UniProtKB/TrEMBL annotation:
Gamma-butyrobetaine hydroxylase-like N-terminal domain mapped to chain residues: 465-542
Gene Ontology MF, one: ATP binding
InterPro entries: FSCA_dom_sf, GBBH-like_N, GBBH-like_N_sf, MIP18-like, Mrp-like_CS, Mrp/NBP35_ATP-bd, NUBPL-like, P-loop_NTPase
Location of the MIP18 family-like domain: 55-127
Entry protein name: MIP18 family-like domain-containing protein
Disordered: annotated span: 20-49
Family assignment from sequence similarity: Belongs to the Mrp/NBP35 ATP-binding proteins family.
Cited CDD domains: Mrp_NBP35
The entry's keywords: ATP-binding, Iron, Iron-sulfur, Metal-binding, Nucleotide-binding, Signal
One Pfam family cited in the UniProt record for this chain: GBBH-like_N
Lineage start: Eukaryota, Sar, Stramenopiles, Ochrophyta, Bacillariophyta
Polar residues composition-biased segments: 38-49
Length: 564
């Protein structure tokens, strides 16, 4: 353990002075290891630290805010087993996070160390990372009782790269410190056995349950491991079998179980989503125009069972092409020099006294400089295969903020057939970064969903026909917005230009008398409105909130102007 460096010399001097004048005293009756739960009742005079040391530490640490949960780490109960070594004044604590894959865990440790080290009477700090034990929602199938979150990876069509995404997401989560399992729920064409070769493919039993196979720390289960070839079954049989198979698998404690769903949005998928207590879904698509409809269908399916879609992956979105100068590096410098010399001498180009070797040397320098310039000018061009994706629409209409575009890449396809996931084989590639970012957004959104305060609370929205206003009841506050204002704020493809975000809808074309015929929550983030002018709009709650705030700010501003 090395204490974090102090931030300035003034603090360093203060601490040094303090330690010099008051060396930590050894009590004749050393107190037991102090825990936050065991208040120190010994008189303060015997110690070189204050009697209220625990509250001082906790209050100092309460400035650290979890960015996802928007609450301080003390209130969240992250600080556990707080103790002090009375002989050294070194503070120890556990940081019990909601997930070991927490994206800001290193920042938290650093912040804790900096803050505690800057308290005058401390002489160091030891932070141990832990995470909360996983507890599955009640009613979860037998083998899944210790699974923290079930993440469905889903697509409307087959062959868009759902299994590839599921596998790389799982291994990305594992590389970030989480314990992960993958369940391949495709009974017709299981792909996990091709994509991930387990270390040992013998299927074993633990009591009456099947032990998942393993690759590194990732647990794996697929019909393909227990049954050669694909099954021929009808819908109800499939869901029953999947349900049994999943429960019969002895997953043990897992932070995340990645569920590679069968493609489609039919009964099998709906029943699975209902039965398996899915925490969140990731939708995989290709960015064709048609596929946006697929995404909508996917979001709607998960919506009917209350599962939020946290990210969309546009797979095979583009391919990368190197453009620019000649990047081939000059390998045979001596050979080229010899050729230059030969040419210089043969053509009689040498002026008086010049040596062919020196001139050739100069020429080589010019060639190498040019080569460097060429390489610097080389850029990678992204060629979009199916057109520009739908990031803007996904965010503006559905409130889905996490959209990732994965290129069509030979190595991704090769790894799909090789039994080793792409991210394991190519951890430093830019595409591995994309999968890691996807994993981080899943971790953050799941944490918000499970532990956040208001993030996923849906405001209640109703239309008050008497007063011709839409009433929004949000976080114990009611606000109103006029139907025409909300209608004019529609960001759908017909109202806003997809690429530039420019409004196509002429606000003046919307009558003041327009009103909602039906309003219903869609997905966990958006409100769907059927308007009296025949239009249908989707508004992320974020947008509704922003529009109300804007209107209120406008009104306040106008009031102030009148008063002035
Ligand atoms: N980004 C990519 N670049 C190149 N090849 C890819 C990419 N993503 C997936 N593939 C390849 O496309 C094929 C289909 O991928 P995958 O099996 O993941 O799709 P799927 O949607 O799960 O299909 P199914 O529903 O039929 O199981 C595989 O051969 C895979 O290796």
């Amino acid at each position: 353990f090395v204490p974090a460096p102090l931030q300035n010399t003034a603090q360093l001097n203060t601490r040094q002075t303090f330690l010099q004048t008051q060396p930590p005293q050894k009590s004749t009756h050393p107190p037991p290891a102090l825990k936050a739960t065991q208040p120190d009742t010994t008189p303060s005079a015997k110690h070189s630290y204050p009697t209220d040391w625990q509250s001082q530490i906790l209050s100092a640490l309460s400035v650290i805010i979890d960015p996802d949960l928007e609450t301080d780490i003390v209130t969240l109960g992250f600080v556990q087993n707080l103790s002090i070594d009375p002989s050294t004044n070194i503070i120890s604590l556990d940081l019990e996070l909601t997930t070991p894959a927490c994206p800001v865990k290193d920042i938290f440790i650093q912040q804790c160390q900096d803050i505690i080290n800057n308290i005058q009477w401390t002489s160091g700090c030891k932070v141990t990372l832990t995470s909360r034990p996983n507890v599955a929602p009640s009613g979860s199938p037998l083998g899944m009782s210790q699974i923290g979150a079930v993440i469905a990876v889903s697509s409307c069509k087959g062959g868009v790269g759902k299994s590839t995404t599921a596998v790389n997401l799982a291994f990305a989560l594992q590389s970030q410190g989480a314990s992960v399992g993958i369940f391949d729920a495709d009974v017709y064409g299981p792909s996990l056995p091709t994509m991930v070769t387990p270390e040992d493919d013998t299927v074993r039993f633990i009591g009456r349950q099947i032990a998942p196979l393993k690759r590194g720390n990732v647990s794996l289960m697929s019909f393909g491991y227990v049954n050669e070839g694909s099954a021929v079954m009808r819908g109800p049989m499939v869901t029953q079998l999947l349900d049994q198979f999943l429960s019969l698998t002895h997953w043990g404690p897992l932070d995340y179980l990645i569920l590679d769903m069968p493609p489609g949005t039919g009964d099998i998928q709906l029943t699975l989503s209902q039965k398996l207590n899915i925490t969140a879904a990731v939708i995989v698509t290709t960015p064709q125009e048609l596929s946006f409809v697929d995404v909508e269908r996917g979001v709607e399916m998960f919506d009917t069972v209350g599962v939020p879609c946290v990210a969309v992956v546009e797979n095979m979105a583009y391919f990368e092409n190197q453009v620019g100068g000649n990047t081939a590096a000059l390998k045979d410098v001596d050979g080229l020099k010899a050729k230059f010399m030969e040419a210089l001498e043969a053509d009689g180009l040498l002026v008086d006294g010049a040596k062919a070797g020196d001139v050739a040397e100069e020429l080589i320098k010019i060639v190498l400089q040019q080569q460097e310039k060429n390489i610097a000018e080389t850029t990678t061009e992204k060629i979009r295969i199916f057109g520009q994706g739908h990031k803007r629409r996904l965010s503006e209409q559905w409130g889905i903020e996490h959209t990732y575009s994965v290129p069509l890449l030979g190595r991704i396809a090769e790894n799909g057939d090789s039994g080793t996931p792409f991210i394991v084989d190519n951890p430093t590639s830019p595409q591995a970064d994309i999968y890691r970012e996807l994993a981080q957004s899943v971790v953050s959104e799941v944490a918000k969903f499970k532990f956040g305060k208001n993030k996923y609370s849906r405001p209640s929205v109703s239309y008050d026909d008497d007063n011709r206003v839409i009433r929004v009841f949000d976080n114990d506050e009611e606000s109103v917005i006029s139907p025409a204002d909300l209608r004019r704020g529609c960001r759908c493809a017909a109202c806003v230009e997809e690429m530039t975000g420019r409004q196509i809808l002429d606000p003046a074309s919307i009558s003041e008398s327009v009103k909602p015929l039906e309003m219903s929550p869609t997905g966990n983030y958006a409100l769907s409105v059927d308007w009296s002018d025949g239009h249908r709009s989707l508004y992320p709650y974020r947008q509704v909130r922003a529009m109300i705030e804007e209107k209120q700010a406008g009104k306040e501003g106008a009031k102030e102007m009148v008063q002035a």
